[in-house]
Amino acid sequence: MGALVNVQGLTKRYTQNDVLAVDHVSFEVQEGEIFSLLGPNGAGKTTLISMLSGILTPTDGDATIGGYSIRREPLAAKRLIGVVPQEVALYPTLTARENLRFWGSMYGLRGRELRARVEEALELVGLRERANDRVERFSGGMKRRLNIAGGLLHRPRLLFLDEPTVGIDPQSRRRILDMVKEFNAQGMTILYTTHYMEEAEELSHRIAIMDHGHIIALGILEDLRRIVGELETVRMTFRETTDLAPLVANIEKEALARQVTTTDQQVVVLTPDAAALLPSLVTLVARHKATLLSLDIERPDLEAVFLHLTGRSLRD
Ligand SMILES: Nc1ncnc2c1ncn2[C@@H]1O[C@H](COP(=O)(O)OP(=O)(O)OP(=O)(O)O)[C@@H](O)[C@H]1O
Ligand SMILES: [Mg+2]
Hints:
CATH class of the largest domain: Alpha Beta
Number of strands: 14
Shape: elongated
Bound molecules: adenosine-5'-triphosphate, magnesium ion
CATH superfamily of the largest domain: P-loop containing nucleotide triphosphate hydrolases
Largest sheet: 6 strands, mixed
């Protein structure tokens, strides 16, 4: 499977306030992938998505979607994309179904096909039962789900979700995250933006960390964690009767074990690469007939990566 999205030097300068919101950004999204843009407020996520979805004209650079240039073949590119905007775009006095019919007609759907797609989208986001209720009576989470349904009406190959879980309760968030995984399992490629590192960690095949209009890191979670270069912690807890001294002496001989500390029950090893050290640790534990009760690897998270790269926190 090749790249579905290919972004080359994409740039946006807002002329009104002379803000360089996206600064020569390049990356690819592979077909079948959940790709997250993780970044704090003002990083340029929405601006980037808006250019890719044809809402904003780039100042420089280009991108292709399914091989179609967003500059030269915008209509063909747009047909492949479903967009779920950050700001919920719904008419409060219309029902859920009426809102979707309106959206669908904007996509050029008509008649029987429009009706069928609206029912399908309502089903996908679990709002069939509430289809005849006016949106003004919906909870925040339900509005978000309906907003997502709007992006699904023309069965896009690629779905853009711009911070779809902001300001909603944990249950609705859970539901949306599961929905995104389900769409992806069905073959949809997802470009997801968030400033919640937990969401990026849970959902993504790959993550691009954005800040001040730049992608400052890109890769799978494991690669990003390695950027921190901080040591990982392996914490082993043993049955209290175990004599740990001979075991610890041997662990200390391992090149990857940078620092070993012990208490009555625990051995804590600092290492640059826990995964690589693990097999020798397990072998040593077995050789010393020590009774291991638990083993935990604590690793740097994306918050630590962002802090390391920018000196600032992801959170506001
Ligand atoms: N329509 C606009 N006109 C002028 N400047 C804008 C406009 N939209 C965004 N900006 C500026 O561009 C920069 C990037 O904003 P953008 O909305 O793309 O960030 P974001 O990553 O989506 O942030 P958030 O997480 O808050 O949604 C910010 O400095 C913002 O103030
Ligand atoms: Mg935004």
